[in-house]
Amino acid sequence: MKDITAKIQEKKSNHNSWLSQGINWFVIISLIGAYIYGVSSNTVHLDENIQLIYPKKELTRFNRYPIIYSDHNLVTGIDDYIAIREEQGWGGPFFIATQINSKGKILNIHVLEHRETPAFFLKLTQSEFFEQFKNMPVDSPFGIEEDIDGVSGATISSKAFARAIQNTSRDVASLALNLVIPSRKIQWSINAKEIILLTLFLMVFIGASFKKPNVRFFTMALGIIFLGFNFSFPLSIAQISSIFLGYFPLFWENGLWWILVSQIFLMILLYGKNLYCSWLCPFGALQEFLNRISGINLKLHPIVKQYGSSTGKFLTWLSLMIIFISRNPSRGSYEPFAAMFSFQGTGIIWYILPLILLTSFFIRRFWCRFFCPVAVALNIGCRARSKILKKGSVK
Prior knowledge:
Layout: H1 2-41, H2 46-53, E1 59-63, E2 67-72, E3 79-88, E4 93-100, E5 106-113, H3 118-126, H4 155-175, H5 192-209, H6 213-230, H7 237-245, H8 255-271, H9 275-280, H10 282-294, H11 302-326, H12 329-332, H13 337-341, H14 349-360, H15 366-370, H16 373-394
Antiparallel strand pairs: 1-2, 2-3, 3-4, 4-5
Helix pairs in contact: 1-11, 5-6, 5-8, 6-10, 7-11, 11-16
């Protein structure tokens, strides 16, 4: 009888192993296919887009690269110019078109395509950020907080679009208007936010290295204050997928991104543990503190635990499929971070967020355990590191 039971368990184990391997291969192949499809299909048809924006203009290519169109006014005999640039923003590359008259004044700004988070881009348009550039001369410095007002909560996007408008203006100035405009030197210095973030990671490294669990409560509390409400900068699936898509923001405009990503990678490499989620993530910390306040931690059925974790993996796969196909990280991001910490969100997220917070009173780290794509991605990174080390030790 024992032999029969053992054989049945062995067959079941083998079946589960084959099923697990099959699912893993399906996930890998489908993501590769989505990535290849996204690369091959997501092309921007600039000529068509420009003609849709300016249907009454007879535009001709004045310069091939950088791209400049000219429009000859038959009445005045004077040309207007439209310059297009691809620049790197918060969410990835974007295309912007700047219309400039023969006197070197900006007439209009049009964003042809962008990958910014919808809520943040909406802040730019609602605050009339682009209206500030109209009638500005092409030799303006276009400096945020110098002669252009940035948008609070969308500072990185503000800087990126201002830089793009500056570059398109300089293209027209030098190539079409024969104006000599001295280049503006890039000035970068480490700021308070970057120092604070480095300090937080240093505290995590010290606490993990010397096994000081009490330090964890300080890093979680500081993570809520700074990474959450102050910076509104928790790690998201959009940031992780940007790495695979090759969307790397400029260091002098987004040093926080480089510090956050590099330090998390370093923690996985050194410790093989997902310390970010357990020690620093502001949303995870907020859930844990809410659960401690209630003192209630419901015991979940093993089936709920098993299929709950599978839900997070499925949502992560689905999110990456959407991101890779569209090559737009913001389209596949479903985390409620922006709604929680910067009070920016759209649609159903405002219904999901209260539900998550309420459930966290009764189930410890409810979102992290069952839905968070960042936890799934970082845990996969930890397992990959462990497997690589094991293979290296066997050899």
